[in-house]
Specification:
Strand 3 and strand 4 form a beta hairpin. The chain has 6 helices and 8 strands. With 159 residues, the protein is of the alpha+beta class. It has a 6-stranded antiparallel beta sheet. The chain has a two-stranded antiparallel ribbon with strand order 2-6. The radius of gyration is 17 Å and the shape is globular.
């Protein structure tokens, strides 16, 4: 499984194509033949790109939901709404469908933000606004989310 952790600024052309930076294309090269999945994010007005392996793992979890429970069925519908299998073309571009661009408010300036097992696709201004809004409380968030973990004293020395 590819681990993502970098950030890239790029531009979308008038047809919604983004030139994927060569370093990101190189990272994705081993899995590009399987395709990528593009979807709306759950919590933010951005898009998410999954490798096919990461998407299949996600769908395996979603597939365990009982569709005879209305809220599960509603969740599945919302979760999969607008999902597209996409590819990076021979010129290194990723095409974003207009409806998904509209959802995320993407116009021209774009940020591709790697986020562990997916890549978030943001309108540049919206991305930096979200980061700025959360900057003041990030230390509290970090403590709430990560503070309960034990210190790792494994042989690799990571703590």
């Amino acid at each position: 499984m590819i681990q993502f952790s970098e950030e890239y600024e790029c531009k979308a052309d008038s047809k919604g194509r983004i030139m994927v930076p060569s370093s990101l294309r190189a990272k994705l090269a081993p899995v590009l033949k399987d395709g990528l999945v593009l979807k709306r994010s759950i919590f933010q007005k951005c898009l998410e790109v999954y490798t096919m392996a990461a998407w299949e793992k996600e769908m395996k979890q979603v597939g365990k939901l009982n569709r005879f429970v209305k809220k599960n069925n509603d969740f599945i519908r919302q979760f999969t709404a607008g999902v597209r299998v996409v590819e990076i073309d021979a010129n290194g571009r990723l095409s974003l469908p207009k409806n998904l661009m509209a959802f995320a408010g993407i116009e021209k300036e774009v940020v591709l933000s790697e986020s562990i097992d997916r890549i978030e696709v943001w309108d540049k201004q919206k991305y930096y606004n979200v980061l700025d809004e959360g900057a003041g409380s990030f230390s509290d968030l970090a403590e709430d989310v990560m503070g309960g973990f034990e210190v790792n004293n494994d042989e690799d020395g990571v703590s």
